[in-house]
Amino acid sequence: EVQLQASGGGLVQPGGSLRLSCAASGYAFKNFAMSWLRQTQGKGLERVADIMNDDKTAYVDSAKGRFTISRDNAKNTVYLQMNSLKPEDTAVYYCNACTVVVGRPTRCDYWGQGTQVTVSS
Question: What secondary structure does DSSP assign to 24-82, as a single string?
Answer without folding.
Answer: EESS-GGGSEEEEEEE-TTS-EEEEEEE-TT--EEE-GGGTTTEEEEEETTTTEEEEEE
